[in-house]
Design goal:
This protein is α+β, with helices and mostly antiparallel strands and 336 residues long. Helices cover 43% and strands 15% of the residues. The strands form two sheets. The chain has a five-stranded antiparallel sheet, covered by helices on one side. A two-stranded antiparallel ribbon has the order 6-7.
């Protein structure tokens, strides 16, 4: 959400995982209905790299991980079956390996928190699907979760995302991290932690513009990094009421209403917030305002009324559904 993915309908080449990584013992985390690819390709985060089918590498904090989603066969001996009889089923699991950087105390708890696996998304989606219009286009399976990312990374990422598209956003963030972030060596090559506020605050604006490709966003990023680096209370922002936090975010350079809402949802996990970009505006108009173009406040009021405390979750499923419809239309028409 917040940027147009011009590659979402294209096939991706898989480089495959490193043998060194595959020989390491993985932590298996039950994942329920969670879909790794749908979540990481949903436009809420930009720095996970696909290295195989259902397989990604990425950095959380100062730790690098390899994550692969698989369906694992389980064998049960339920009561009531004849002696020796077995019943097999499959469970959805994430196989996670720490591949570099700071070793987390517990890989499982780190990934459960990051991918929000302890939250009952199937129950949330059932609640949202009580809305008939929403239920017509959104699948029953709760594959998309709202990732719990680092707030500073999200602030900078969505300042860069304004009037931009996902491949370019990813390129800018990669250059930013290579230049100002801590290097993490992995079997897949070097990855980088996201720069700390102090590192970007000390950057030269000309380097942000020319070396990292930020263009006119260079001063937005630099001034925002300086403002946050100077705030001793930044860690406590996550505890603030949403309305107060929104006002604080709107005071940062390069943060307008849409970017602030994206930061609230994806950086501070305020699930009631409903960011509206071009695609969401089209989706809401098609579902709830046929024949006319609603104002932004009308869209937000409609989302709050229909989706309540989980409007942000609904937003991600609407975005995914309409993006899929766009892909289907392009294939039907023979591409662009």
């Amino acid at each position: 959400m917040g940027a147009i993915d011009s590659t979402s309908c294209e096939s991706r080449h898989s480089a495959g995982a490193s043998d060194e990584v595959m020989n390491e013992k993985a932590v298996a985390i039950p994942a329920g209905e969670f879909d790794l690819e749908q979540t990481l390709e949903s436009g809420q985060c930009f720095r996970w790299r696909r290295v195989g089918e259902g397989e990604y590498i990425g950095v959380i904090g100062r730790s690098a991980f390899h994550v692969r989603q698989v369906r694992r066969r389980t064998i049960a001996h339920p009561l009531g079956l004849p002696s020796g009889a077995r019943r097999s089923s499959y469970e959805n699991v994430l196989l996670v390996r720490h591949i570099g950087g700071v070793a987390p105390r517990e890989i499982e708890s780190t990934l459960i928190r990051y991918f929000d696996l302890s939250r009952d998304y199937p129950a949330i989606l059932r609640r949202l699907r009580r809305d008939e219009a929403f239920a017509r286009i959104v699948p029953r399976r709760a594959g998309i979760h709202i990732v719990q990312q680092d707030p500073f990374e999200v602030i900078i990422s969505f300042i860069i995302s304004a009037n931009n598209h996902i491949p370019r956003i990813r390129g800018i963030l990669e250059r930013l991290c290579v230049r100002y972030g801590e290097e993490i060596r992995t079997p897949f090559g070097s990855l980088h932690a996201f720069p700390r506020p102090e590192a970007l605050a000390e950057a030269r604006v000309v380097e942000l513009r020319e070396q990292c490709g930020l263009g006119y966003r260079d001063r937005y990023v630099w001034r925002t990094a300086r403002a946050i680096a100077a705030r001793s209370d930044f860690a406590s922002w996550s505890e603030w009421p949403t309305a107060v936090l929104r006002e604080q975010l709107l005071g940062l350079e390069g943060v307008g209403e849409k970017v602030a809402d994206c930061i609230l949802l994806f950086g501070f996990h305020r699930l009631e917030v409903f960011p509206v970009d071009t695609w969401i505006a089209r989706a809401m108009r098609a579902l709830y305002f046929p024949g006319r173009t609603p104002r932004l406040r009308e869209i937000q009021a409609c989302a709050a009324e229909r989706f309540g405390a989980y409007a942000g979750v609904a937003q991600q499923y609407l975005y995914a559904a309409f993006r899929q419809m766009r892909c289907a239309a392009r294939v039907t028409c023979g591409g662009e």
